[in-house]
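Priority: medium. Attachment 1 of 2:
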């Protein structure tokens, strides 16, 4: 379900692509959280402080999907996202893990797939007894899930968006199919694609901001910016900050010893 995006070979020089968000707007795009509520809390606090320090703007936060699974606290990641929406304009994209989660309630094959790829941690975060879960059949797990997960959480997740366009940027969970107009993009590709999107070097209609594919650092390829820095794997949750033509990053980083720090860097076009 995940792969590292690394290359030991020298990458070819990519075309310079100038992109911007509308004047007066500021965007914070947050990569895959995957149940790491501790990192999410720290990054929320950092974004709010950063937004105050940067001055007045029409600010939008975009969560790029995969809020759930793999990490230990999906239930509270969902709760935090909902609470943040009460005082901040927060928009959320649906990722492949949210898709699996929703489909698992009435599809046993999908439930098996979901549980193998991080869903176990999600359902346990909703208070299922671990011993009872271990002993249960797949049908019983489905019944336990239905009893444990509030309908309001399922309705909230079902309302997540597939793509968001702001200025010269397109925000999706996984990527797009190169050469296909946005109105003809397949929803499944938006949530699951890797290739040929990742290796495509020609400009798209928009600069695509995405998660889904893990890298230890943000990946800016000119035509796309990947910001899944492996919150559950590497202990790093990253936000891309866009204002005018500028790009910069904020990251909440777990040092592995119980401390979370915030780092930031400025990336100029």
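Attachment 2 of 2:
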């Amino acid at each position: 379900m995940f792969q590292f995006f690394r290359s030991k070979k020298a990458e070819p020089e990519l075309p310079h692509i100038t992109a911007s968000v509308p004047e007066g707007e500021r965007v914070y795009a947050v990569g895959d959280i995957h149940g790491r509520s501790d990192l999410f809390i720290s990054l929320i606090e950092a974004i709010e402080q950063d937004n105050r320090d940067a001055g007045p703007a029409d600010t939008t936060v975009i969560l790029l999907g995969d809020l759930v699974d793999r990490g230990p606290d999906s239930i509270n990641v969902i709760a935090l996202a909902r609470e943040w929406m009460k005082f901040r304009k927060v928009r959320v994209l649906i990722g492949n893990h949210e898709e699996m989660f929703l489909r698992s309630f009435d599809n046993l094959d999908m439930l098996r797939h979901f549980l193998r790829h991080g869903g176990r941690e999600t359902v346990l975060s909703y208070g299922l007894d671990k011993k009872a879960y271990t002993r249960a059949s797949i049908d019983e797990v489905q019944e336990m899930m239905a009893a444990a997960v509030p309908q309001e959480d399922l309705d909230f997740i079902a309302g997540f968006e597939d793509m968001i366009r702001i200025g010269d940027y397109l925000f999706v969970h996984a990527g797009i199919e190169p050469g296909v107009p946005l109105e003809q993009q397949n929803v499944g590709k938006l949530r699951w694609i890797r290739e040929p999107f990742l290796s495509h070097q020609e400009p798209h209609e928009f600069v695509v901001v995405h998660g889904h594919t893990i890298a230890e650092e943000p990946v800016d390829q000119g035509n796309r910016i990947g910001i899944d820095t492996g919150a559950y794997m590497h202990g790093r949750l990253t936000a891309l900050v866009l204002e005018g033509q500028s790009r910069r990053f904020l990251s909440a980083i777990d040092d592995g010893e119980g401390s979370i720090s915030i780092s930031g860097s400025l990336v100029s076009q």
